[in-house]
Structures are given as C-alpha cells and as structure tokens.
C-alpha cells in the first residue's frame, strides 16, 4: 500500500517522467503576425527586486533586446500556464517591455525577462504567458544544452 502511494506521488510530481518535470508544458500560443512593435523600457529592473525604481540598475542595464530579437521571440515563444510561469520558470529582475499591435487589430503590452520568460496582456482580455528556451539574443544568458 505504501509503495503504491509513493509510486503515485512520484508519478504525479514528475519525478518519474524521465526528468522532463523540470520544464513546463509548452503549447503553441496561436498569435497572429505582428503589425507594429514598440519598446517602452529596455534593461529595466522589476520593482520586486527591491530596487528604488524600474530604472536600469547595473545588473540589468545590459539586458537590451533589438526589435528583430523581440519580434522573433514573440513569434517563436510557446505558451505556458500561469502556474508554470510563476512556479517553474526562473525569475529575473531584468526585463524589456513595450507595446505590440497584431495584424488582426488586437493590441497588447509585452514583457520579456532575461531568462527567456515573457508575457502578453492583450486588449481582448487574454493574458499569454510565454517561454522560449531556444530563443537566441546577445542579452540572453547562454542556453543550456
């Protein structure tokens, strides 16, 4: 009985899934093509970091993404659940954010963190949590193999 319970707990926690329990489940975000993109803050520091403002700190000043890197991230990133976004992905105080308009007319506010997680708050009320472990940019740390 105890062995069956331990087996069930290990299976539910992802321990027995070949190690893939450390990455969130990722799904196609089904985002339309981007029409326009603006950057509002680049190399900013999140208020939760304890910094006095969202102005770049020395730690985050170098986290700057180019327009092509941001476009590629938004089009390539996968959607993750809100739970996985907040509980499985590494958090960084360093981020870049701005506004996006999609070709279907939906607008939104995007944010991308240094460790490749991001979010989109869309004008249709939808919030999309993103993760792109394969995305490349000079400002991202080297991807793990």
In words, what does this structure look like?
- The structure is a single chain.
- The protein is α+β, with helices and mostly antiparallel strands.
- A hairpin with a 3-residue loop joins strand 5 and strand 6.
- The radius of gyration is 17 Å and the shape is globular.
- The N terminus is likely disordered.
- A seven-stranded antiparallel beta sheet has the order 1-3-7-6-5-4-2.
- It is 19% helix and 30% strand.
- The protein has a domain of 101 residues.
- It has three helices and seven strands.
Helix and strand pattern: HEEHEHEEEE
Query: Low-confidence runs (pLDDT<50, min 5 residues)?
Result: 1-19
**Helix tally?**
3
The rounded distance between the terminal residues' Cα atoms is 39 Å
* Biggest pleated sheet: 7 strands, antiparallel
Computed CA radius of gyration, to the nearest angstrom: 17 Å
Q: Which structural class matches the secondary elements?
A: alpha+beta
Total beta-strand segments: 7
The fraction of residues in strands falls at 25-35%
Look at the structure and give the mean pLDDT: 82
Helix content: 10-25%
Q: Provide the spatial order of strands within the biggest beta sheet.
A: 1-3-7-6-5-4-2
Shape: globular
């Amino acid at each position: 009985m105890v062995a069956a319970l331990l087996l069930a707990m290990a299976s539910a926690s992802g321990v027995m899934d070949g190690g893939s329990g450390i990455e969130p489940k990722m799904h196609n975000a089904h985002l339309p093509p981007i029409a326009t993109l603006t950057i509002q803050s680049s190399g900013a520091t999140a208020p939760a970091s304890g910094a006095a403002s969202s102005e770049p700190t020395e730690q985050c000043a170098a986290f700057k993404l180019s327009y092509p890197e941001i476009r590629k991230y938004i089009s390539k990133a996968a959607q993750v659940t809100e739970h996985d976004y907040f509980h499985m992905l590494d958090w960084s105080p360093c981020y870049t954010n701005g506004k996006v308009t999609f070709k279907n007319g939906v607008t939104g506010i995007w944010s991308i963190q240094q460790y490749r997680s991001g979010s989109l708050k869309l004008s249709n009320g939808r919030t999309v949590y993103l993760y792109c472990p394969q995305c490349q940019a000079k400002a991202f740390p080297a991807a793990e193999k």
